[in-house]
Amino acid sequence: MVDISKRRFFTRKNIDSKQIRLPWVNELQTFTDLCTRCGKCVGACETGIIEHADGGYPSINFTIDECTFCYKCAEICPEPIFNNKDSQPWNAKASITDSCLAHKNVECRSCGDACETMAIQFKLRLGGVALPEIELGECSGCGACVSICPTSSISVSNL
Ligand code: SF4
Ligand code: SF4
Ligand code: SF4
């Protein structure tokens, strides 16, 4: 028997709207009401990035790997939680902090090399190495740039 009141507790207290849940899940409030925390998506994820997070609800951890948008988490889920595969998976975008090596004048382009959509562009500047900038319109929120960064300077969150 599922304890709805406990789910609502986590809905109100523990769910950060910027936290990455799962692709194709857009209604976070509905998600915590409908998800039974069965863990089927955790086992189905081909890159192993889905973890049981707060309250046992699944959540994405990009420090492990990227999302390939394979849709397996949605396919295996027995609950009516996921949107159609043709729709946009999420509004997640990457951002880079000042701890990036390039901000310390150390040449690094690992994130740019990892980005399939070429959303990370390096802008030349006088007196320093080129700085990475993210073209938000091109970023799919796949997270491929997160685990590759040697200084953990990149995070992906919902806009
Ligand atoms: S779409 Fe695929 S890679 Fe992305 S979270 Fe779901 S199962 Fe994992
Ligand atoms: S991989 Fe990390 S340290 Fe390297 S340029 Fe990108 S954000 Fe900076
Ligand atoms: S999240 Fe994916 S698409 Fe966005 S900048 Fe990083 S690697 Fe590129």
Structure report:
- This protein has 159 residues and is an alpha+beta fold.
- It is 20% helix and 18% strand.
- The protein contains five helices and six strands; from the N terminus they run H-H-H-E-E-H-E-H-E-E-E.
- It has a two-stranded antiparallel sheet. It has a two-stranded antiparallel ribbon with strand order 3-6.
- The relative contact order is 0.19.
- The chain binds iron/sulfur cluster (3 copies).
- One iron/sulfur cluster binds next to helix 5.
Structural class: alpha+beta
Radius of gyration: 17 Å
Amount of beta strand: 15-25%
Largest sheet: 2 strands, antiparallel
Instruction: Give the number of helices.
Output: 5
User: Outline, from the CA principal axes?
Assistant: elongated
The domain count comes to 2
Query: Which residue ranges are poorly predicted, with pLDDT under 50 across at least 5 consecutive positions?
Result: 1-15
Summed over residues and divided by their number, the pLDDT gives a mean of: 89
Helix content: 10-25%
Gap between N and C termini, in Å? 35 Å
CATH topology of the largest domain: Alpha-Beta Plaits
Bound molecules: iron/sulfur cluster
Q: Can you identify the CATH class of the largest domain?
A: Alpha Beta
**CATH architecture classification of the largest domain:** 2-Layer Sandwich
Summarize it.
20% of the residues lie in helices and 18% in strands.
Write the layout of secondary structure elements.
Blueprint: H1 4-13, H2 28-34, H3 40-44, E1 50-52, E2 58-60, H4 72-76, E3 92-96, H5 110-114, E4 120-125, E5 128-134, E6 154-158
Antiparallel strand pairs: 1-2, 3-6, 4-5
Helix pairs in contact: 1-2
The chain binds iron/sulfur cluster (3 copies).
One iron/sulfur cluster is lined by residues 96, 100-102, 108-111, 132, 149-151, 153-154.
